[in-house]
């Protein structure tokens, strides 16, 4: 038989590698890797991720760094429950244990940023909180789109199940356009109810930057932790090269609140994700063919990094309330400063600065977030709140100063007596050295330092709220639509 050859039998392997995966950098960039060494991994804390689900092939999400297997405690498909009310029978003991595949990829990517227990070739964990437990709630479809109704139902389910699964953190890496005051928006109402129940809510600022007043829903909610994005510009471990991402949405909100509260790494973030999902098919250039990893950018990713840091804070300080967690996260953040020591980015762009797990965990700050706000009264419709931000006649955004309410004699004698008083707010420009005045210009590319020693001259009083008054108006006013936004979505930002 001409042409016939005999070969020894040989083994065949897939094209993907089984070697240790690459370093992801962001756990180190936000101070989480140091805490892992000391045993703070988020163990005992459950993070609920409302997104597109989690890949059935869970990989580094299957087992926590402490050995818990499975560490995805429950999965709930809101879309399936709406389309098929019989999908979750009341008497079933294991109705939340079955897998819900992630047909998009975004939910797995976000979950992996928070919780991956994979150990990189450097010996560091790939995730920010590798010891946490996860609950996956599918509220977005295979295209990354979802209805308000579904997201609200997912939040309500998570709040109802918080004691059963130990849910302390809710990650919302999604955004929708602002169409009403925060208190009239039904998604924001659900978020406020979650916060009031004791769950820390972390929300993406949105990818509509760098324009001011571009924060989406639910990031515009004054209670929650809203997160903008920083990129290392492909220079990991070189903080002088880190930049505020150009796509990161900026504040203030329409009600005058400074947003975001903090920023986190959100540029070209590597994490485990499906290699056959919608995002992988749409952006094959973002896939790593050697590993089931995908690189994406956005405030979605920055929010996930922050949720991981919050989980670390709660492991170390399990008795903290949501307001206290927010306070310590802000207190431990490191703002970007220029060579002369002044802020490189205004508070409307970077909030308190880049999150740092170590500084937040060891912070002892109290009463520095959500002061003057009452979430129960807000939900009940008894009071609503405005922040200290405003815009002057030249289009500059600024912070209104706080003054003690003067006595009658002081009012009569004061040359400022003619200025409009709104409760304890005296309209006036704050110091530009505090980064509290902004003309709306985009972030610069000048060299910056993410400072450990910058002291805010007035603390974080710009995060406080005051009872809303009809007299509390922006200089040019805004017109609201009576319609609420009907959909929310996730959309990757450009790689930076």
The residue-averaged pLDDT reads 84
Cα-to-Cα separation, first versus last residue: 60 Å
Give the total of beta strands: 23
Helical residue percent band: 10-25%
Number of helices: 14
Mind telling me the C-alpha Rg? Answer: 23 Å
Low-pLDDT parts are: 1-17, 403-433, 475-484
Keywords:
496 residues, alpha/beta, 14 helices, disordered N terminus
What does this structure look like?
With 496 residues, this protein is an alpha/beta fold. A hairpin with a 4-residue loop joins strand 11 and strand 12 (293-296). Strands 1, 2, 3, 5, 6, 7, 8 and 9 form an eight-stranded mixed beta sheet that branches. Strands 10-12-11 form a three-stranded antiparallel beta sheet, with helices on one face. 52% of the residues are buried. 22% of the residues lie in helices and 16% in strands.
Describe the structure in brief.
With 496 residues, this protein is an alpha/beta fold. The chain contains 14 helices and 23 strands.
Write the layout of secondary structure elements.
Blueprint: H1 26-29, H2 32-37, E1 46-51, E2 72-77, H3 78-83, H4 106-115, E3 133-138, E4 145-147, H5 148-160, H6 162-165, E5 167-172, H7 186-196, E6 200-204, E7 225-231, E8 243-244, E9 262-265, E10 269-272, H8 278-282, E11 287-288, E12 293-296, H9 299-316, H10 322-332, E13 336-337, H11 347-350, H12 357-361, H13 375-380, E14 385-386, E15 389-391, E16 397-399, E17 401-402, H14 408-413, E18 421-422, E19 425-426, E20 437-438, E21 449-450, E22 466-467, E23 487-489
Parallel strand pairs: 1-3, 1-5, 2-3, 5-6, 6-7, 7-9
Antiparallel strand pairs: 4-23, 7-8, 10-12, 11-12, 13-21, 14-22, 15-16, 16-20, 17-19, 18-19
Helix pairs in contact: 4-9, 5-7
